[in-house]
Amino acid sequence: MSDPFTPTRPKIISVANQKGGVGKTTTTINLAAALVELGYRVLVVDLDPQGNASTGLGIALDDREFTTYELLLEDIDLQDVILDTAFKNLMVIPATVDLSSADIELISNEKRSFLLHDALRQPQMAKFDLDYILIDCPPSLNLLTVNAMIASHSVLVPLQSEFFALEGLSQLMLTVREVRQTGNPKLRIEGVVMTMHDARNNLSQQVEQDARDNLGELVFKTRIPRNVRVSEAPSYSMPVLSYDSASKGALAYRDLAKELVGNDMTVGA
Ligand code: ADP
Ligand code: MG
C-alpha cells in the first residue's frame, strides 16, 4: 500500500482528444472498470457536458443534483458530488449540459485554469482512498480540457484508426506544451491508444504504423478492436467488462489497464 499522501496517489489521468467520437468516453469507462478489476479504487470525472460517461456508468439524470459544474464553480462538499456506481470501488462525478456554460463562466475567474486541480486536491479527498482518477474530457481544447490537464499527472490519448487521425495530434501536443509552461511542468503523455481498430482493414493498419513510426514508445502495445459489444454496453448502463466479460473489447481494455499499471509502478494497489 502506498502512502495516501504521496503526490502520485491518486494518479490523475486526462483522457483527451479534441476530436469527437474517437473513443474517449468508452476508454474512460472501460479502463476505469478494468482498473477496478485489478483491485484499485477509481473515480471517473465527467468533464463533458454531454454527460456520456455518467450515463454509461448508470447515473440517471435525476441523480445528478451536484455535478462537475458545482465542483468547479461552487463551494461544494466532495461527499455530495462523488457518487457511487453499481460497481464496487468505481465512483463518478457526473456532468450535465450545465457544464456547457462553464467554459465561458470560467474566463472571468482568476483561477480559471486551476479550479479542477484545486478541487481534486482538497484534503477531504483522502477519505475516498482513491488509486486513480480518470477525467473524460470534452471534444475540444477549451478551458475545461486545460483544467483537466493542469489537474493531471498525465494525458492518455485515444486515437481512432482512421485517416487524418494523426493530424489533430499536433494541436493536442501544443496544448500539452502550453499547459507545461503555464502551470503543470510535470504533465506527461501517458500514451496513445489505438481505438476501434480493425486488423483486417488496410487503413487501420496504416494509421497504426504511422502512429508507431511517429510516436514510438508512446503508443500502447494494446489496441482496442472495433467490437459491437463495446458500443452496446452503455445502453445497458454498464462497462463492457460487465456487459460481456469475455468479449474482445473487454479483453482489450483489461490488457490496456495492465499495460498502464505496468508502465507506472509508482501507484500501489
Ligand atoms: P468520444 O468520447 O471520443 O466522443 P465515444 O467513446 O463516445 O467517443 O465513442 C464514439 C462512438 O463509438 C460511440 O458510439 C461508442 O459506442 C463507439 N465505440 C467506441 N469504441 C468502440 C469500439 N472499440 N468498438 C465499437 N464501437 C466503439
Ligand atoms: Mg465522450
Offer a concise description of the structure.
The protein has 12 helices and 7 strands.
Folded structure, characterized:
The chain is of the alpha/beta class and 269 residues long. The chain has one domain (11-263): 3-Layer(aba) Sandwich (Rossmann fold), CATH 3.40.50. Helix content is 39%, strand content 13%. The chain is built from 12 helices and 7 strands. It has helices at residues 24-37, 52-56, 68-73, 78-81, 102-107, 115-120, 143-151, 167-182, 202-215, 228-232, 240-243, 248-263, and strands at 11-15, 42-46, 83-84, 90-93, 132-136, 154-160, 188-195. It has a 7-stranded mixed sheet with strand order 3-4-2-5-1-6-7, sandwiched between helices. Helix 1 (24-37) crosses helix 12. The longest helix is centred in the middle third of the chain and has 16 residues, at 167-182. It is globular and about 50 Å long. The model is unreliable at 1-5 (pLDDT under 50). It binds adenosine-5'-diphosphate (ADP) and magnesium ion.
Alpha-carbon Rg, integer: 17 Å
Coarse shape? globular
How much is the average pLDDT? 93
Question: CATH H level: which superfamily?
Answer: P-loop containing nucleotide triphosphate hydrolases
**Annotated CATH topology:** Rossmann fold
The number of domains: 1
Gap between N and C termini? 6 Å
- Decide which structural class fits the backbone: alpha/beta
| Strand line-up of the largest beta sheet | 3-4-2-5-1-6-7
Order of helices and strands: EHEHHHEEHHEHEHEHHHH
CATH architecture: 3-Layer(aba) Sandwich
Q: Mind summarizing the main beta sheet?
A: 7 strands, mixed
- Kindly state the number of beta strands: 7
